[in-house]
Amino acid sequence: MDRTEKKALVASLAAVFAETSMVVVTRNNGLTVADVTDLRRKVRAAGANYKVAKNRLATLALDGTQFSGIAPLLTGPTALAWADEPVSVAKVIVEFAKTNDKLELLGGSLGSQVLDVAGIKALAELPSLDTLRAQLVGLISTPATRIASVVQAPAGQLARVFGAYAKTGEAA
Predict the structure, then answer these.
(1) What does this gene product do (predicted)?
(2) Positive or negative CA dihedral for 19, 23, 27, 28?
(3) Distance of alpha carbon 101 from alpha carbon 105, whole angstroms
(4) What's the N-to-C CA distance of the chain in angstroms?
(5) How far apart are CA 25 and CA 23, in angstroms?
(6) What are phi and psi of 104, to 5 degrees?
(7) Tens digits of residue pLDDT in 107-158
(8) Is 124 in a helix, a strand, or coil?
(9) Which of these, 6, 35, 84, 126, could form a disulfide with 31 (CB 3.0-4.6 Å)?
């Protein structure tokens, strides 16, 4: 890789770090090509990205960004995963690390907040943004249905009373 390619890589990574909200750092301890391909496919399906970058170049790209706190994690064979929606990337990486012991989770950063392994795992246990939206819609619509049933209850009771009088009138 020559100097211009390195500058282009640093610039592209710096642009990514300026736009994203979450970065996860992993260590590849002998992952096969098939494993990495499977991981990349799962990460892409979650709307995130996964890239193996030279640690020195990634550290240069981190300088001056909100993610500069993860620079000490960039030692050895590392890879970066990032996304705008933090829960999805954390879930994918944590789930893959559970099934493949050759992927080691080192930590990450949610904005300027540096997270350790426990923090990434806790983030992965949160419901996704779509699930939270569905729960919020459910909470909002529940009172409306309760109000409708309360408003309809007196009319229903009145109809039952009239029906009961009609039956007693027919019986007599």
Answers:
(1) Forms part of the ribosomal stalk, playing a central role in the interaction of the ribosome with GTP-bound translation factors.
(2) negative
(3) 10
(4) 101
(5) 7
(6) -105, 130
(7) 888 888 888 888 888 888 887 777 778 877 877 777 766 666 666 666 666 6
(8) helix
(9) 35
